[in-house]
Amino acid sequence: MSAGPVSDLAGMLAGMAPVLDARRWEFALITGDPPADAFALIREDEGLTAIVADADGAFARIALMVHSALDGVGLTAAVATALAAAGIACNVVAGFHHDHLFVPWERRGEALAILSDISARAAG
Protein backbone atom coordinates (compact mmCIF):
# COMPACT_ATOMS: atom_id res chain seq x y z
CA MET A 1 0.00 0.00 0.00
CA SER A 2 1.30 3.46 -0.93
CA ALA A 3 2.27 5.78 1.91
CA GLY A 4 0.53 8.68 0.17
CA PRO A 5 1.83 11.94 -1.19
CA VAL A 6 5.04 13.51 0.10
CA SER A 7 4.86 17.26 0.69
CA ASP A 8 8.12 18.22 2.41
CA LEU A 9 10.91 19.27 0.04
CA ALA A 10 13.61 17.05 1.57
CA GLY A 11 11.34 14.01 1.28
CA MET A 12 10.35 14.83 -2.29
CA LEU A 13 13.98 15.26 -3.35
CA ALA A 14 15.16 12.13 -1.56
CA GLY A 15 12.37 10.06 -3.08
CA MET A 16 12.58 11.35 -6.66
CA ALA A 17 14.06 8.13 -8.11
CA PRO A 18 14.14 9.65 -11.62
CA VAL A 19 13.39 7.26 -14.49
CA LEU A 20 14.24 7.98 -18.12
CA ASP A 21 11.62 6.91 -20.66
CA ALA A 22 13.24 5.30 -23.74
CA ARG A 23 10.81 7.01 -26.13
CA ARG A 24 11.31 10.37 -27.80
CA TRP A 25 8.57 12.98 -27.25
CA GLU A 26 7.25 15.98 -29.11
CA PHE A 27 4.97 18.90 -28.27
CA ALA A 28 2.50 19.28 -31.12
CA LEU A 29 -0.21 21.81 -31.86
CA ILE A 30 -3.33 19.81 -32.66
CA THR A 31 -6.08 20.74 -35.06
CA GLY A 32 -9.01 18.38 -35.03
CA ASP A 33 -9.32 15.38 -32.75
CA PRO A 34 -6.44 14.82 -30.31
CA PRO A 35 -4.49 11.57 -30.61
CA ALA A 36 -5.83 8.86 -28.30
CA ASP A 37 -2.31 7.94 -27.16
CA ALA A 38 -1.20 11.48 -26.21
CA PHE A 39 0.71 11.60 -22.94
CA ALA A 40 -0.88 14.95 -22.07
CA LEU A 41 -3.24 17.48 -23.56
CA ILE A 42 -2.98 21.17 -22.70
CA ARG A 43 -5.81 23.48 -23.71
CA GLU A 44 -4.76 27.09 -24.20
CA ASP A 45 -6.59 30.04 -25.73
CA GLU A 46 -4.37 29.71 -28.81
CA GLY A 47 -5.05 26.01 -29.36
CA LEU A 48 -4.61 22.44 -28.15
CA THR A 49 -1.14 21.08 -27.44
CA ALA A 50 -0.51 17.35 -27.23
CA ILE A 51 2.62 15.69 -25.92
CA VAL A 52 3.08 12.62 -28.10
CA ALA A 53 5.66 9.90 -28.61
CA ASP A 54 7.43 10.58 -31.90
CA ALA A 55 10.46 8.79 -33.39
CA ASP A 56 11.88 12.20 -34.36
CA GLY A 57 10.84 13.94 -31.12
CA ALA A 58 13.16 16.54 -29.66
CA PHE A 59 12.49 15.71 -26.01
CA ALA A 60 13.16 12.96 -23.48
CA ARG A 61 10.79 12.36 -20.57
CA ILE A 62 12.13 11.80 -17.08
CA ALA A 63 9.54 10.74 -14.51
CA LEU A 64 10.16 11.60 -10.87
CA MET A 65 8.79 8.54 -9.15
CA VAL A 66 8.12 10.15 -5.77
CA HIS A 67 4.39 10.59 -5.15
CA SER A 68 4.73 14.33 -4.69
CA ALA A 69 1.83 16.21 -3.15
CA LEU A 70 0.18 18.65 -5.51
CA ASP A 71 0.53 21.32 -2.83
CA GLY A 72 4.16 20.45 -2.04
CA VAL A 73 6.48 23.44 -2.36
CA GLY A 74 9.90 23.54 -3.97
CA LEU A 75 10.33 20.35 -6.03
CA THR A 76 9.80 22.02 -9.40
CA ALA A 77 12.02 24.94 -8.42
CA ALA A 78 14.80 22.68 -7.16
CA VAL A 79 14.98 20.47 -10.23
CA ALA A 80 14.51 23.33 -12.71
CA THR A 81 17.21 25.38 -10.98
CA ALA A 82 19.69 22.49 -11.03
CA LEU A 83 19.02 21.76 -14.69
CA ALA A 84 19.15 25.48 -15.58
CA ALA A 85 22.57 25.75 -13.90
CA ALA A 86 23.77 23.12 -16.39
CA GLY A 87 22.09 24.93 -19.29
CA ILE A 88 19.43 22.24 -19.73
CA ALA A 89 15.91 23.35 -20.68
CA CYS A 90 13.14 21.69 -18.69
CA ASN A 91 9.39 21.58 -19.26
CA VAL A 92 7.48 20.17 -16.28
CA VAL A 93 4.11 18.44 -16.43
CA ALA A 94 2.59 17.46 -13.10
CA GLY A 95 0.34 14.45 -12.83
CA PHE A 96 -1.64 13.38 -9.79
CA HIS A 97 1.13 11.03 -8.61
CA HIS A 98 4.33 12.14 -10.34
CA ASP A 99 6.07 15.01 -12.05
CA HIS A 100 7.36 14.51 -15.58
CA LEU A 101 10.27 16.51 -16.94
CA PHE A 102 10.76 16.99 -20.66
CA VAL A 103 14.38 17.81 -21.47
CA PRO A 104 16.25 18.05 -24.78
CA TRP A 105 16.83 14.55 -26.13
CA GLU A 106 20.57 15.08 -26.57
CA ARG A 107 20.96 16.16 -22.91
CA ARG A 108 18.86 13.36 -21.36
CA GLY A 109 21.77 11.43 -19.83
CA GLU A 110 23.23 14.53 -18.25
CA ALA A 111 19.82 15.59 -16.92
CA LEU A 112 19.21 12.13 -15.44
CA ALA A 113 22.62 12.20 -13.73
CA ILE A 114 21.95 15.64 -12.21
CA LEU A 115 18.54 14.57 -10.89
CA SER A 116 19.90 11.28 -9.54
CA ASP A 117 22.65 13.18 -7.74
CA ILE A 118 20.17 15.60 -6.16
CA SER A 119 18.08 12.67 -4.95
CA ALA A 120 21.08 10.77 -3.55
CA ARG A 121 22.36 13.84 -1.70
CA ALA A 122 18.93 14.54 -0.21
CA ALA A 123 18.62 10.90 0.90
CA GLY A 124 21.93 11.27 2.73
From TrEMBL:
InterPro entries in UniProt: ACT-like_dom_sf, CASTOR_ACT_dom, DUF2241
Domain called CASTOR ACT: residue spans: 62-117
Residues that span the membrane, as ranges: none
One Pfam family per UniProt: ACT_7
Residues of the DUF2241 domain: 7-56
Entry protein name: ACT domain-containing protein
Organism of provenance: Erythrobacter ramosus
